[in-house]
Amino acid sequence: MANRIEGYDKKIIDCSLKEFLEKGYNDASLRNIASAAGVSTSTLYTRFKDKEGLFNYLIAPTNKFIDYMEKTLLNYGAMSIEEQKDEYDNISDEGFDKFIELVYEDYPAYKLLVSCSHGDTFNNYLEKITSLDVDYTMKFLKDIGSKAFYNEELDEGFCHVVSTAFYSALFHCVEHDMTKEEAGKYINKLRNFYQRGWSAYF
């Protein structure tokens, strides 16, 4: 963030969050944000370039989950097949616990992403997660010798559809303003439902 102004950073961010959360991306106004924060609109343009730049700055914390997922899957994929089988449940449990932790640590950023973004912002984010999940799922099925994989009962396209549906549903905890405790219970139900289906292929 360019040209930091001592004492104004938090106020600008707070006012920006309020404007975007109340009005959504399309109806939010930099002029309103500047007025509420007590700075000029030119200050906002200098620091963030434009409205999209400011919005992207506000939702940047949501990238922590993608970073975590990439690192976790990379480490998991480096394990032997036997280790992957043994650690599957533990890695999965830890991953979803981490998801809840990150979401409620930076809840406003996730709320903006899920409910207040524009164009394909959220869909693009979802696609990154889904692609990671599909790549490692297909590799796992291949490595364990899944009959469904080798008989082409389960292909990448179907896997992508199922994964997209799962992660879309995962973010309902944000869309519907669940508490952290409610989100934990909801996600456990969601996982149990999908795991029963996946068990036919694993």
Name some characteristics of this structure:
mainly alpha, 202 residues, 12 helices, Arc Repressor Mutant, subunit A, 2 domains, single chain
Descriptive account of the structure:
The protein is built from twelve helices and no strands. It is elongated. The mean pLDDT is 92. It is 78% helix and 0% strand. It has two domains: 41 residues, Orthogonal Bundle (Arc Repressor Mutant, subunit A), CATH 1.10.10; 139 residues. By secondary structure, the protein is an all-alpha fold. Helix 1 runs parallel beside helix 7, helix 6 crosses helix 7 and helix 6 runs antiparallel to helix 12.
Q: In brief, what are we looking at here?
A:
The chain is mainly alpha-helical and 202 residues long. It has helices spanning 9-27, 30-37, 41-48, 51-59, 63-77, 81-105, 107-115, 121-143, 147-150, 156-170, 172-175, 180-198. The chain is elongated.
